[in-house]
Amino acid sequence: MTRILVIDDEEDIVTLVKNTLQLQNYLVDTFTSAKQVDRSKLARYDLILLDIMMPDVDGLSFCRKIRPLVDCPIIFLTAKSQEEDVVTGLSYGADDYICKPFGVQELLARVDAHLRRERREHHAALLLGDVYFDLSSKQVRVSDQVLDLTKSEYEICEHLAKHRGQVFSKDQLYDYLYAYEERGTPAAIAEHIKNIRAKFRTIGLEPIETVWGIGYKWN
Questions:
Q1: Which ranges carry the Response regulatory domain (predicted)?
Q2: Directed axis angle between helix 83-91 and helix 59-66, to 10°?
Q3: Torsion of CA 170, 92, 31, 109, to 10 degrees
Protein backbone atom coordinates (compact mmCIF):
# COMPACT_ATOMS: atom_id res chain seq x y z
CA MET A 1 0.00 0.00 0.00
CA THR A 2 1.19 3.51 -0.81
CA ARG A 3 2.77 5.31 2.16
CA ILE A 4 3.00 9.10 2.36
CA LEU A 5 4.96 11.27 4.79
CA VAL A 6 3.51 14.66 5.80
CA ILE A 7 5.60 17.24 7.70
CA ASP A 8 3.98 20.55 8.64
CA ASP A 9 4.02 22.55 11.87
CA GLU A 10 0.36 23.59 11.45
CA GLU A 11 -1.83 21.03 13.19
CA ASP A 12 -4.91 21.97 11.14
CA ILE A 13 -3.03 21.42 7.88
CA VAL A 14 -1.66 18.08 9.06
CA THR A 15 -5.12 16.89 10.09
CA LEU A 16 -6.70 18.00 6.81
CA VAL A 17 -4.03 16.37 4.66
CA LYS A 18 -4.00 13.15 6.68
CA ASN A 19 -7.79 12.73 6.64
CA THR A 20 -7.96 13.53 2.92
CA LEU A 21 -5.27 11.03 1.97
CA GLN A 22 -6.54 8.29 4.27
CA LEU A 23 -9.94 8.49 2.58
CA GLN A 24 -8.08 7.46 -0.59
CA ASN A 25 -6.61 4.45 1.26
CA TYR A 26 -3.11 5.86 1.55
CA LEU A 27 -1.03 5.09 4.62
CA VAL A 28 -0.07 8.44 6.12
CA ASP A 29 2.57 9.30 8.71
CA THR A 30 2.59 12.86 10.04
CA PHE A 31 5.03 15.04 11.96
CA THR A 32 4.90 18.68 13.05
CA SER A 33 8.68 19.08 12.99
CA ALA A 34 11.36 17.76 10.67
CA LYS A 35 13.43 16.99 13.75
CA GLN A 36 10.95 14.24 14.67
CA VAL A 37 11.58 12.28 11.48
CA ASP A 38 13.79 9.18 11.58
CA ARG A 39 15.84 9.57 8.41
CA SER A 40 16.76 5.90 8.41
CA LYS A 41 13.11 5.10 7.65
CA LEU A 42 12.60 7.58 4.80
CA ALA A 43 13.02 4.91 2.12
CA ARG A 44 9.66 3.41 3.08
CA TYR A 45 7.74 6.40 1.68
CA ASP A 46 6.33 6.71 -1.83
CA LEU A 47 5.82 10.48 -1.57
CA ILE A 48 6.70 13.28 0.86
CA LEU A 49 4.66 16.43 1.53
CA LEU A 50 6.89 18.99 3.20
CA ASP A 51 6.14 22.46 4.58
CA ILE A 52 8.74 25.12 3.83
CA MET A 53 8.25 27.49 6.76
CA MET A 54 8.85 25.50 9.95
CA PRO A 55 10.71 26.25 13.18
CA ASP A 56 13.92 24.42 14.09
CA VAL A 57 14.57 22.88 10.66
CA ASP A 58 12.93 24.56 7.64
CA GLY A 59 11.64 22.51 4.75
CA LEU A 60 14.25 23.74 2.28
CA SER A 61 17.14 22.63 4.47
CA PHE A 62 15.46 19.32 5.25
CA CYS A 63 14.83 18.63 1.56
CA ARG A 64 18.45 19.28 0.68
CA LYS A 65 19.61 16.90 3.40
CA ILE A 66 17.26 14.01 2.60
CA ARG A 67 17.26 14.13 -1.21
CA PRO A 68 20.38 11.93 -1.43
CA LEU A 69 18.58 9.41 0.81
CA VAL A 70 15.26 9.14 -1.06
CA ASP A 71 14.13 8.93 -4.66
CA CYS A 72 10.41 9.45 -4.11
CA PRO A 73 8.63 12.68 -5.16
CA ILE A 74 8.87 15.59 -2.72
CA ILE A 75 6.12 18.22 -2.86
CA PHE A 76 6.46 21.44 -0.90
CA LEU A 77 3.53 22.93 0.99
CA THR A 78 4.13 26.66 1.21
CA ALA A 79 2.26 29.83 2.06
CA LYS A 80 4.94 31.82 0.27
CA SER A 81 4.38 32.60 -3.39
CA GLN A 82 7.66 34.34 -4.15
CA GLU A 83 9.47 32.87 -7.12
CA GLU A 84 12.77 32.63 -5.25
CA ASP A 85 11.28 30.10 -2.84
CA VAL A 86 10.06 27.96 -5.72
CA VAL A 87 13.42 28.19 -7.46
CA THR A 88 15.33 27.28 -4.31
CA GLY A 89 13.08 24.34 -3.52
CA LEU A 90 13.34 22.86 -6.99
CA SER A 91 17.10 23.28 -7.04
CA TYR A 92 17.27 21.30 -3.79
CA GLY A 93 15.53 18.34 -5.44
CA ALA A 94 11.82 18.98 -4.89
CA ASP A 95 9.49 17.89 -7.68
CA ASP A 96 6.58 20.26 -7.19
CA TYR A 97 4.91 22.63 -4.74
CA ILE A 98 1.41 23.55 -3.58
CA CYS A 99 0.61 27.04 -2.31
CA LYS A 100 -1.51 27.43 0.80
CA PRO A 101 -4.41 27.70 1.08
CA PHE A 102 -5.10 24.75 -1.22
CA GLY A 103 -8.24 22.74 -1.89
CA VAL A 104 -8.70 19.05 -1.22
CA GLN A 105 -9.15 18.27 -4.90
CA GLU A 106 -5.96 20.10 -5.86
CA LEU A 107 -4.03 18.20 -3.20
CA LEU A 108 -5.34 14.84 -4.40
CA ALA A 109 -4.73 15.71 -8.05
CA ARG A 110 -1.10 16.62 -7.40
CA VAL A 111 -0.42 13.59 -5.22
CA ASP A 112 -2.12 11.19 -7.64
CA ALA A 113 -0.27 12.67 -10.63
CA HIS A 114 3.13 12.18 -9.01
CA LEU A 115 2.32 8.66 -7.87
CA ARG A 116 1.08 7.70 -11.36
CA ARG A 117 4.30 9.00 -12.82
CA GLU A 118 6.24 6.86 -10.36
CA ARG A 119 4.36 3.76 -11.48
CA ARG A 120 5.04 4.22 -15.17
CA GLU A 121 6.99 1.32 -16.57
CA HIS A 122 9.82 2.06 -18.97
CA HIS A 123 11.55 -0.46 -21.15
CA ALA A 124 14.47 -0.61 -23.61
CA ALA A 125 16.82 2.25 -24.31
CA LEU A 126 17.24 5.39 -26.39
CA LEU A 127 20.50 6.65 -27.87
CA LEU A 128 20.80 10.18 -29.24
CA GLY A 129 24.34 11.05 -30.20
CA ASP A 130 26.46 10.55 -27.10
CA VAL A 131 23.47 10.57 -24.75
CA TYR A 132 22.16 7.15 -23.69
CA PHE A 133 18.76 6.80 -21.97
CA ASP A 134 18.20 3.65 -19.92
CA LEU A 135 14.40 3.71 -19.91
CA SER A 136 14.11 0.97 -17.31
CA SER A 137 16.39 2.45 -14.66
CA LYS A 138 15.54 6.05 -15.62
CA GLN A 139 19.16 7.02 -16.05
CA VAL A 140 20.98 9.20 -18.55
CA ARG A 141 24.55 8.25 -19.36
CA VAL A 142 27.22 9.85 -21.48
CA SER A 143 30.09 7.42 -22.07
CA ASP A 144 30.43 5.75 -18.66
CA GLN A 145 29.22 8.77 -16.68
CA VAL A 146 25.72 8.79 -15.17
CA LEU A 147 24.17 12.25 -14.91
CA ASP A 148 22.80 13.06 -11.46
CA LEU A 149 19.30 14.10 -12.55
CA THR A 150 16.27 14.40 -10.28
CA LYS A 151 13.15 12.49 -11.30
CA SER A 152 11.50 15.54 -12.80
CA GLU A 153 14.66 16.49 -14.67
CA TYR A 154 14.94 12.99 -16.08
CA GLU A 155 11.30 12.93 -17.20
CA ILE A 156 11.72 16.24 -19.03
CA CYS A 157 14.83 14.98 -20.78
CA GLU A 158 13.23 11.69 -21.78
CA HIS A 159 10.08 13.38 -23.08
CA LEU A 160 12.03 15.89 -25.16
CA ALA A 161 14.42 13.21 -26.43
CA LYS A 162 11.61 10.87 -27.46
CA HIS A 163 10.13 13.74 -29.50
CA ARG A 164 13.41 15.09 -30.81
CA GLY A 165 12.99 18.32 -32.75
CA GLN A 166 9.45 18.97 -31.48
CA VAL A 167 8.97 22.14 -29.44
CA PHE A 168 7.12 21.94 -26.12
CA SER A 169 5.93 24.95 -24.14
CA LYS A 170 6.41 25.22 -20.39
CA ASP A 171 2.73 24.48 -19.84
CA GLN A 172 2.88 21.38 -22.04
CA LEU A 173 5.87 20.04 -20.15
CA TYR A 174 4.19 20.74 -16.82
CA ASP A 175 1.03 18.95 -17.94
CA TYR A 176 3.12 15.97 -19.06
CA LEU A 177 4.91 15.78 -15.72
CA TYR A 178 2.01 16.29 -13.39
CA ALA A 179 -1.12 15.59 -15.45
CA TYR A 180 -3.64 17.63 -13.51
CA GLU A 181 -6.20 20.04 -14.87
CA GLU A 182 -5.17 23.33 -13.32
CA ARG A 183 -2.52 25.42 -15.04
CA GLY A 184 1.01 24.80 -13.76
CA THR A 185 3.65 27.37 -12.96
CA PRO A 186 6.22 28.28 -15.62
CA ALA A 187 8.76 28.86 -12.86
CA ALA A 188 8.94 25.14 -12.10
CA ILE A 189 9.75 24.05 -15.66
CA ALA A 190 12.16 26.94 -16.25
CA GLU A 191 14.14 26.01 -13.15
CA HIS A 192 14.23 22.32 -14.07
CA ILE A 193 15.56 23.22 -17.53
CA LYS A 194 18.18 25.49 -15.97
CA ASN A 195 19.36 22.65 -13.71
CA ILE A 196 19.42 20.14 -16.57
CA ARG A 197 21.54 22.45 -18.71
CA ALA A 198 24.00 23.06 -15.89
CA LYS A 199 24.50 19.31 -15.44
CA PHE A 200 25.00 18.67 -19.17
CA ARG A 201 27.45 21.56 -19.42
CA THR A 202 29.75 19.79 -16.97
CA ILE A 203 30.31 17.19 -19.70
CA GLY A 204 30.40 19.68 -22.55
CA LEU A 205 26.92 19.10 -24.00
CA GLU A 206 23.98 21.43 -24.72
CA PRO A 207 21.16 19.10 -25.85
CA ILE A 208 18.18 21.32 -24.99
CA GLU A 209 17.50 24.37 -27.16
CA THR A 210 15.24 27.27 -26.25
CA VAL A 211 12.88 28.33 -29.01
CA TRP A 212 12.22 31.87 -27.88
CA GLY A 213 8.60 32.69 -27.23
CA ILE A 214 7.53 29.07 -27.70
CA GLY A 215 9.37 26.57 -25.51
CA TYR A 216 12.10 23.92 -25.59
CA LYS A 217 13.27 21.11 -27.84
CA TRP A 218 15.93 18.40 -27.87
CA ASN A 219 18.53 18.96 -30.58
A1: 3-115
A2: 20
A3: 10
Strand partners, 133: 126, 140
d(CA 136, CA 43): 20
Q: Amino acid identity of 163?
A: H
| 47-51 and 96-99 beta bridge pairing | unpaired
Helices 186-201/151-162 angle, 10° precision: 80
List average pLDDT for each run of 10 residues in the chain, which is 219 residues long.
94 96 96 91 91 89 87 86 73 87 92 82 71 87 90 93 91 79 66 95 94 93
The kind and range of the H/E element at 172 are: helix 170-178
Is residue 17 within 8 A of residue 107, CB to CB? The reply is yes
